[in-house]
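chain below, 379 aa
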Amino acid sequence: MNNKNSYDFIIAGMGLAGLSLAMQLKNSSVKFNKVLLIDKDLKNKNDRTWCFWSKEDANWFDKIIFKRWSKFKFSSSGLNKVCEINPYQYCMIKGIDFYNFCLNELKSDIRFDFVTDEIKKIETKNNQAHLHTIKEEYHSMYLFNSAIRTPKIVQKHINYVQHFKGWLIETEENNFDVDCPTFMDFNIHQKNDCRFVYVLPFSSNKALVEYTGFSPKRIDDEEYDAELTSYIKLNLKIENYKVLEEEQGEIPMFESEFVNLFGNRVINIGTSGGSSKASTGFTFYFVQKHISELVKSLANGSPISFARKPKYLYYDRILMDVIDKKKMPASEIFETLFKKIPTPTILAFLNEESSLLQELRIMNSVPKLKFVPAALRKL
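prediction:
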């Protein structure tokens, strides 16, 4: 094999996880000469928006946070609440800003090479990681994979997707409160699922309106469009607007694990590595935490591993079981939490950084007859 195809690390996939890893490697003390990033897409479109909450003051991605909020709104049939979230900030990053920032930074560093090509195969061979495209083969000490997902589906497991479609709309009048996004609005037809809308105001007359569902499979485009049109007209009371951009996608909310079928020189990252929270689909924050642990392992020469705490995996399974068995509408679950529990406590729990006292308080707030049987089933 040609030496030009030999690297210290290969990053397969240049989405959230791949570019986050490259950026954290660039800013770390890890010693390396060459890293290859490979993806079939150019990453030149605003194809998604990431939201997360954090109380940290400094992060490598701070420069590209498009909006920060100190409060948000929760709405359901029984509750309309503006939630103060201190010490957290609710943050939003646009996909195109993330891609442009990372690629500009990385392309200014001669240690990083880029290939646009379709990945056909990854494997461990002769104690090295190998990546195959149609025309080339590359090898490295380690390969970090976010491009190929290999879930080990178990029939009794609950495996949902968080599916979504959003419109960035511009209105003729000032319809939006720029200081208060809508975190969840359940005031739409649930259709025996978990469905809500969130609204992220860019300005007083421009906002991203995103229709979201948790269910075994996504819905079709016609239904998304009808639901978005209805929400904007009936809930937001807006008649005249322009759709400037669209985004849509789906995130696995799997009780089943994503497994590594590629050998010990391949490390799965991102959703492939279990960084999408099964009960909510939130991914950005967990990717950063897991990548940080991974880079510390590389810097220290310790075994490369990262894992979520088992208790949070268990909590996720319980919530998904209650939603799946239709024992209690998802809208009522979240309504109960936001009625009884301080919002920062909910956010700490969802970020998997809660104290035992906070967790006990949350457990005590939900109906025992609905949740205890689910907890026993998922033991």
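The first strand starts at residue 6 and ends at 12. The radius of gyration is 21 Å.
thats it, cya
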